[in-house]
Amino acid sequence: MNIKESAEMKLNGVVVADNRKISAFAALLRGAYKLSGAKKAFGLPEDEITKVIEKQNRHRGVFTPADHKAYYETVTVNGFPCLIVRENPKPSERAILYFFGGGMVIGPDKGDLPVMRKLMRDTGCDVWFPFYPLCMEHCITETYDMVYECYRRMIGIYGGGNVSTCGFSSGGALALGIAVHNNAQSEPLPQPRHIVAVSPGEVPWNDAEKARMQALNEKDVAIDYAFMVTVEKFMCHGQENVPDYMISGSRGDFSGVGDIHFFYSADEVLYGALPDFENACKRADVPYTAFARPKMVHCYCMLPYFKEAREDFAKITDILKK
Questions:
Q1: Are strands 80-86 and 71-77 parallel, antiparallel or unpaired?
Q2: What pLDDT is stored for residue 4 in this prediction?
Q3: Is residue 289 part of a domain?
Q4: Which residue, 211, 5, 207, 249, is CA-closest to 104?
Q5: Above 50 in pLDDT, residue 2?
Q6: What DSSP state is assigned to residue 43?
């Protein structure tokens, strides 16, 4: 970590930033979330939240960059597009499989593109960005089929040990899930070099995890705990026998991963899942780090436009460029 010792403390194995004073932008962003009422949508009943999601997705989805700030290529994987962002026309030596968030139900928008380019330039890696199947119309098993095929192609191009995964929110769950899904295969591929999971989500699967998430609900200005229960029905999409690790990633096997790094706001519901992810890392004997910053909004460090976010995004790129 690049924070001075005086500005951080270690709590139960997690490095927690001393955020007694936060930047004006961070405070404004947190206030804006509160005023927007965005959290209320996540607490709506299934039929009502479906309408909200459908409305949001009208303005989101697949996009093709028109600028010349990087070299772009779109490939089709299992019938879905995957955008590749490169510094040069030829592939780099290493690559990052990068996942957008949105609870597995909300698509990406063009605001993700500057982050992809920054990730590419600051790490020296190519960035692959799959427009994976959303669980409004597909089962999570189809999502995993698509992103795992992306990973397979990347291993074929860059070689084992040269591909890392990174994602935020539900994308963080997929970044972790690639490794777990890989271990569930009869002939697994080489595991990711690094995994960076920013506020990875999962459906809570034990009483302790549920209690931790519920206790954080009042502090979270973006996500309501109720959604972490509701989303399971969307993810299964009417299918039975969905592997439990696709619903709750901390139930899976991370064996063989180079290292795993977790980033959270200390004041978000999903932070309650961290102890279960830590236990999963310990079971698999995988080295891991965990960092949390109080008073931040969900996935703040993937918006590297203000002080705290820039500092923590730099930590992420430092990991991924190694």
A1: antiparallel
A2: 38
A3: yes
A4: 249
A5: no
A6: T
List Cβ<8 Å contacts ≥24 apart for 60-64: 60/106, 60/107, 60/108, 60/109, 61/107, 61/108, 61/131, 62/107, 62/131, 63/108, 63/109, 63/110, 63/113
Please give the average per-residue pLDDT across 171-190, as a whole number. 98
Residue 156 belongs to some domain of the structure: yes
How many helices (H) and strands (E) are present in the chain, helices listed first?
Answer: 11, 10
Q: Where are the beta strands (DSSP E) in the chain?
A: 8-11, 14-17, 71-77, 80-86, 95-99, 126-130, 163-168, 195-198, 260-265, 288-293
Residue 85 has pLDDT above 50, yes or no: yes
259 in Cβ contact with 287 (< 8 Å): yes
Joined tokens for residue 184: 């569930």
Q: Hey, what are 237's tokens?
A: 């999409």
Q: Side by side, which strands form the sheet with 71-77?
A: 8-11, 14-17, 288-293, 260-265, 195-198, 163-168, 95-99, 126-130, 80-86, 71-77
**Total domain count, the chain:** 1
The answer to whether the CB of 180 falls within 8 A of the CB of 253 is: yes
As a whole number, the mean pLDDT across the chain is 94
Residue type for position 43? G
Does residue 69 form part of some domain? Answer: yes
Both tokens assigned to 213: 């998430």
Task: Give the integer Cα–Cα distance in Å for 70 and 283.
Answer: 41
| Prediction pTM value | 0.94
Contacts of 65-74 with CB under 8 Å at 24 or more apart are 65/110, 65/113, 69/117, 70/117, 70/120
3-state secondary structure of 98: strand
Residue 14 belongs to a domain: no
CATH number at residue 184: 3.40.50.1820
Q: Give the range of the structural domain holding residue 129, as residue numbers without chain letter.
A: 19-320
What is the DSSP code (8-state) at residue 301?
G
Residue 163 token pair: 């591909």
Angle at 176 between CA 133 and CA 275, to 5 degrees: 130
Tokens of 89: 């026309």
User: Contact at 8 Å (CB) between 234 and 170?
Assistant: no
